Structures are given as structure tokens and as C-alpha cells.
Amino acid sequence: MSDLDFSPPEELTVSLWRSLLLNLIDRVAPERLPPLELTSEPVEVGILAGDLLDLPWYRTVFSNLAEVISPDTSPPLQLESKPVEVGELLGDELNHGWWYSLLGQLRERLAPQKLQPLRLTSHPIAAFGAKASLQILDWSSLLATPKVFLPDAPKPSAPGASPAPEAAPARAAVASGHPELLATRLRLTRDLGRTRFRRRIWIGLAAAEAVFLLVALFKFQ
Asked: What is the pTM of this model?
């Protein structure tokens, strides 16, 4: 077999002016090609499905009787492919009794199947110090805005001392210098407010339903 070439045709990379010029030349002086000569022979495929539906009913009755009396004997089918072992099918597994599943669970518990260690090619995602399970992603890895590192709040020198007043102006200056960060903060504040409002509505509905059930229980008892 010849090597298959799946690359796009060269006509796709032709410039606009060159394509217009080639089309004009082909229109004015088209290429003279020899007549097409077919070397293949037609294959007998029988009657087509559209023609079979257009036949009258008596034609189909006689053809069905002829097929029943003397059916067409075809040569036996020879399979060249080899079967692949896929294990037990899902339908056959569901048809087993409950004891079969119980024995399989006990066998898996006593002598589990030894599998090769899984090799992961992806890099782990950084979480909030999660060691066993992934809890939530860092905002720094989810937001596409530029990262802003705010200065640490100064520690009071004496117990009970108020923090330095320079922290609030510094944050305001950072927020005014980065409008994207301010817009993200406003969206988060709005979403939190809507969540709290919906939570109050659901709590009120649940409380009203509980009161109604209690009143109906004691009234119709």
C-alpha cells in the first residue's frame, strides 16, 4: 500500500491573487483533458431498497414464496479475526445470585488482586495544606488577575494596643491601583450576600413547615 497523505491540499495555501489569476486562466483557456475511460466493471448488487418498495404486492408475495421454497445458499462465513478475552459481561454478572456476589466480595477481601502501581503523569494541584484529600483550590491559582501581595499588619508592641492606622490606607491604595482586584472583591461580596439571603429564606420555610406539621399532629390526633 502507498503511504497515505492526510495533509491539506496545496490549494488552501495559495494566495488570493494567485487563485483569482488561475481561475481566470482556466476560464479563458481551459485545459484539454483526454476523455475518461472506465476500466472497472459494474457489480451486481440486486434490487435496490427504493425499487423494492415500489414493487406491487403480488411481486413480493411470489418472491417470498420462492425464498421459502428454495432459499439462496451462501457459503459459510469464515472469520479471520481472533476473539479477545474481555472477561465476564455485565449482563451475565447481574444474572448471578446474591451468594455469588457474596463469595466474590469475600474472596476480594481475603486475597485481593495484586495490581501494578499507578503511574501518574500529571502534577498535583496545590491546596490549603491538604495531605490526604483535596479540599479547595487556592484563589491565586483560580483568578487570572495579577497577584497583589499586601503588607503584613504590624504587631502591637504592648497587649491591648491598637494596630497601626497605615494598614487601611495601604489596602485602599492597592485596591484603587488594581481595579480588577476591586471588581473581583465586589463580586464576591455580592455573591456572599445573596447566599446569606437565600439561606435565611430556606431556614424560614423549614421552620414554618415544622410548625405546621406540629400543629397538624396535635390538632388531628
From this structure: 0.22
Q: Which amino acid is at 164?
A: A
Q: What are the b/e assignments for 40-76, b being 16+ CB within 10 Å?
A: eeeeeeeeeeeeeeeeeeeeeeeeeeeeeeeeeeeee
d(CA 49, CA 52): 5
Give the Cα separation of 197 and 204 in Å (integer).
11
- In the chain, domain spans: 168-221
Q: Where are the alpha helices (DSSP H) in the chain?
A: 16-28, 49-54, 57-69, 90-94, 98-110, 139-142, 167-177, 179-219
Question: What is the tens place of the pLDDT at every residue in 56-74?
Answer: 888 788 878 888 888 888 8
Q: How far is CA 136 from CA 142, 156, 186, in A?
A: 11, 32, 21
Contact (Cβ atoms closer than 8 angstroms) between residue 130 and residue 138 = no
